C-alpha cells in the first residue's frame, strides 16, 4: 500500500503546487512564504530547481486564473455578498475598475507585487472581462519576477544555513507542523470574528 508519507517524500512538488492553490483561494498559506520556502529547499538540494520552478509557476498561474474566472463568471454581483465585501468593497471595486479602464494590463503587471491587492486585481480583471489570453500573458510575465525575487531570497537563505540539508523527513515534519498551526490559527480567528456582534 502506497502510504501518505511515501507520497510526501516522493512528491514535494505536488505539495508546493497545492500550497499555492490553497493560498490563492484565501487559506492562510501566503504565496511569498511558499516561494521563499521553495528557494530554501532548492538551495539545500532537497528538491530540484527545474521541477520546483514548474510546480510554483503552474501553481501561481492556476490560482490566479481561478480568481480571474470567478470574477468573469459572477461579476459585480459578488460584491453584494457579505463575505466578498470583506475582500473588496463596492468602492474599492469601482476604483480598481477605473484603473483597469485607464491602465489595463499594467494594473496586473505592477499590482501583482502589492501584497493584499493581488486577489482583488485578478478578480477585477475577470469582472472587467479582460481577455483570458491577455490576462494569462500578463500574469505569466509578472509571475516570473515574483518567483525570481521570492525564490531568490529563500535560495540565498538556504545557502547561508547548513541545517536540514539531507534530512527530508525533518523538513516534512516541520512543514506539516507549520501547516497545522496556520490552519488552526485561521479557524480560531474566523470563529472569534464570526462571534463578534
Q: What's the layout of helices and strands?
A:
Elements lengths: L3 H7 L1 H13 L6 H13 L5 H26 L7 H6 L2 H14 L1 H7 L6 H10 L4 H29 L7 H28 L2
Word description of this protein:
There is one protein chain. The protein is mainly α and 197 residues long. The chain has one domain (4-195). The protein has helices at residues 4-10, 12-24, 31-43, 49-74, 82-87, 90-103, 105-111, 118-127, 132-160, 168-195. α2 packs parallel to α4. The chain is globular and about 45 Å long. Mean pLDDT is 77; it is low at 1-8.
**Ends: how far apart?**
50 Å
Q: Helicity range of the residues? A: over 70%
Q: Main beta sheet: strand number and arrangement? A: none
Number of strands: 0
Number of contiguous helices: 10
Give helix and strand order, one letter per element, not per position.
HHHHHHHHHH
Count of distinct structural domains: 1
Estimated share of beta-strand residues: under 5%
Summarize model confidence as the mean pLDDT.
77
Q: For the CA atoms, what is the radius of gyration?
A: 18 Å
Stretches where pLDDT is under 50 for at least 5 consecutive residues are 1-8
Q: Give the class from helix and strand content and strand pairing.
A: mainly alpha
Specify the overall morphology: globular
